[in-house]
Write a structure and sequence with these properties.
Chain B: This is Methionine ABC transporter ATP-binding protein. The complex is a heterodimer. Chain A has nine helices and no strands. Chain A is mainly alpha-helical. Chain A is flat, with a radius of gyration of 20 Å. Chain B is an alpha/beta fold. The chains are: A mainly alpha, B alpha/beta. At the A-B interface, helix 6 and helix 7 of A face helix 2, strand 6 and helix 3 of B.
């Protein structure tokens, strides 16, 4: 069988697996993205000198993020299985994978959001305070809009990291393109599967990155 | 009742390390600002003037003392009431602080959104203010497309949007070139004159004070060392800090090398004569010296205009025997301050 025939035969399966991968990533992005945004925002506003300084809240979240974010994902996804069983009813399969990635992504995105918000000019926040705006209004109308361009780039970066995580999540029986490449390419010594999967992932990542760049550029008017 | 009254206001920041004394940024400052004043606060960087202005709109809480606006002590208000109070105090900044995510018009609308005004009315009001500052054609532009002077004019329009009776200007012209500075100062003078807004101007440039401030307070190391009518502080500064600031604008006194050079060129004793518009004129000074029959030369100085009033500062060299010179100098008369230059 020629390589072209083999790839043609593989394609429907690989595309299906790509779809599953994107579905897992999309769900994890929604859950992890929202939780990460909230955690990052809390870190930013509660820190010393922040607009809603709350030292205790800051330290609790800070320690939580610092503890879990550096854990290698392959260990994290296994370690969180008991919690997954409690929350989504199973420790294996795609549901458990979405759960695990969402939690890991929350911590990861929290730092990313915090760092992007730190870059907002403190002068514009002071100006909003001087105009009588409340802290919550400042978050909605100053901090988030002013940081939107960098946040879009940050989230684009996060999506690529989630694709990476989704491949690792094969260890607890998650489906998806990355896991397929490991199971049927690497473990069965079939470089055609590995390389075709790699090729598809590269294209998907390029498309996502390009879309993120265009969107950010539009927001930043550059 | 003064419009804004500060009584023994102190602002301390906690010590950076345990065992160190706290940093005193503002030290027992008392000031009274009347309705319609353009009140200048001048000092070197680190003198505490930027902190002081942030106490007036409670962006920073005062450590001690009271700050009354129309009789209400704002240091005692709840956070919500302080926000309410801030809508009545506009503020402009050295670096303009416009929102880059919003168009010029929507920047000006911001305080109106905070005040809960409807969309159509906000838009109308914002355009009206942009017209007032001469930027009606830039309503749809974004801040980064404007020059520094234009951005500051947008800042002024935004600060005035909610019709505040008070405007705080924190080094509003320090990031601008001299020409643009003049434009912005003219606009501030117009705001004061046409809208009756009381303006507090923070600056380290005495020229700004000379141009628009009716009254001035000089700050040094957290304290107000001198305060009064701008004209009297310029013509009769009482402290070394004030004199240094005055000299940056009134360059009519020879110093150091200049004085040595003048001494080499001119014989006789040197006197510095200062006169204000309430006292003598140049002609009377020279007339008196001529009548006394001594030989004199004008070696340095000239006449300045401060707040539209005259201020002269002349250095003369007088030749003749000691008694005759003393006699001549004392004959100049009242309304003039004469001091011999000894250095």
């Amino acid at each position: 069988m020629s390589i072209i025939e083999q790839v043609t035969e593989l394609m429907p399966t690989l595309l299906e697996q790509t779809g599953i991968m994107l579905w897992i990533v999309a769900l994890a992005l929604i859950f992890g993205g929202i939780c990460g945004l909230i955690l990052g925002l809390l870190l930013y506003v509660t820190r010393k000198g922040g607009i809603m300084q709350q030292t205790v809240v800051f330290w609790v979240i800070n320690i939580l993020v610092n503890t879990f974010r550096p854990v290698p994902f392959i260990i994290f996804i296994a370690a969180i299985q008991p919690l997954a069983r409690q929350v989504v009813g199973t420790g294996i399969g795609s549901d458990a994978v979405v759960f695990g990635i969402s939690i890991a992504a929350s911590f990861f995105i929290a730092r990313l959001v915090e760092q992007n918000l730190m870059a907002v000019d403190p002068g514009v926040i002071e100006a909003a305070r001087a105009m009588g705006a409340s802290p919550w209004r400042i978050v909605r109308t100053v901090i988030l809009p002013e940081a939107l361009g960098p946040l879009v780039l940050g989230y684009t970066f996060a999506i690529v990291a989630l694709i990476d995580m989704s491949a690792v999540a094969g260890i607890i029986g998650g489906e998806g393109l990355g896991n397929y490449a490991v199971s049927y390419g690497y473990r069965q010594f079939d470089p055609v599967v590995t390389w075709t999967a790699l090729f598809i992932i590269v294209i998907v990542v390029q498309l996502i990155q390009a879309f993120g760049n265009i969107l950010a550029r539009k927001i930043l008017r550059r | 009742m003064p419009h804004i009254a500060l009584k023994d206001v102190t602002k301390e920041y906690p010590a950076p390390q345990r065992g160190h004394a706290p940093t005193v940024a503002v030290d027992r400052v008392s000031l009274e600002i009347e309705k319609g004043d353009v009140f200048g606060i001048i000092g070197y960087s680190g003198a505490g003037k930027s902190t002081l202005v942030r106490l007036i709109n409670a962006l920073e809480p005062a450590t001690a003392g009271s700050i009354e606006i129309d009789g209400t002590d704002i240091t005692r208000l709840s956070a919500a009431r302080q926000r309410q109070m801030r809508t009545g105090i506009g503020m402009i900044f050295q670096r303009f602080n416009l929102l880059s995510s919003r168009s010029v018009r929507r920047n000006v609308e911001y305080p109106l959104e905070v005040a809960g005004m409807g969309k159509a009315e906000r838009r109308r009001k914002a355009l009206e203010l942009l017209d007032f500052v001469g930027l009606a054609d830039k309503a749809g532009a974004f801040p980064e497309q404007l020059s520094g002077g234009q951005q500051q004019r947008v800042g002024i329009a935004r600060a005035l949007a909610a019709d505040p009776p008070i405007l705080l200007a924190d080094e509003a012209t320090s990031a601008l070139d001299p020409e643009t500075t003049d434009e912005v100062l003219d606009l501030l003078a117009k705001v004061n004159r046409d809208l009756g807004v009381t303006i507090v101007v923070i600056t380290h440039e005495m020229e700004v004070i000379a141009r628009i401030a009716t009254k001035v307070a000089v700050m040094d190391r957290g304290q107000v060392v001198e305060a009064g009518e701008t004209y009297s502080v310029f013509t009769n500064p009482q402290t070394a800090t004030s004199r240094r600031f005055v000299r940056t604008v009134v360059r009519n006194l020879p110093t150091g090398d200049e004085l040595t050079e003048l001494r080499a060129q001119h014989e006789g004793r040197f006197f510095t004569i200062s006169f204000t518009d309430e006292g003598a004129t140049e002609a009377r000074v020279f007339g008196a010296l001529a009548r006394a029959g001594v030989d004199f030369n004008l070696v340095y100085g000239g006449v300045d205009s401060i707040q539209g009033r005259v201020y002269g500062l002349l250095t003369i060299a007088v030749r003749g025997d000691a008694a005759a010179v003393d006699e001549a100098v004392s004959s100049i008369g009242s309304g003039v301050t004469v001091e011999e230059v000894h250095a």
